[in-house]
Amino acid sequence: MSIFKTMGNIVNKEGYAALFKGVTASMIGVIHPLVFFPIYESSKFYLKNNFEEPGADKLSTKYLLLSTVVSKVIASSVSYPHEVLRSRMMYEKVTADGIK
After folding, report:
1. Do the domain assignments include residue 6?
2. DSSP letter at 19?
3. How far is CA 94 from the centre of its chain?
């Protein structure tokens, strides 16, 4: 089935607004990369300037790994409520439809 046929079926059965169901939860999901990348880039810059030898071209692997892990933990902590929200919304939809 083509994408346009599927979109037509959704619009015919549920209305045009059905194409945008869940857009709010998806937009909240954008928080993760919005938090991760700035922290990641600034921590790399900080670690290179403060812990690498002067004149080093690149950040060493251990500091790159540290920057990645710290950024991921912070971003995941900030955006985790989105996962709970999305799971609850899906669960409520399933139970409201009578599917268990």
Report:
1. no
2. G
3. 23
Q: Is residue 64 situated within a structural domain?
A: yes
What whole-number distance in Å separates Cα of residue 100 and Cα of residue 39? 41
Tell me the pLDDT tens digit for each residue of 48-82: 999 999 988 999 999 999 999 999 999 999 989 88
Distance CA 42, CA 55 (A): 18
pTM of the full structure: 0.70
Locus of tokens 């928080």: 31
Question: Is residue 7 domain-resident?
Answer: no
First to last CA, the chain: 28
Residue 17 to residues 4, 13, 38, 65, Cα–Cα distance (Å) = 16, 11, 34, 43
Determine the distance from the C-alpha atom of residue 84 to the mean position of all C-alpha atoms in its chain, rounded to a whole number: 13
Range of the structural domain that residue 91 is part of: 22-96
Return the DSSP state at 54.
T
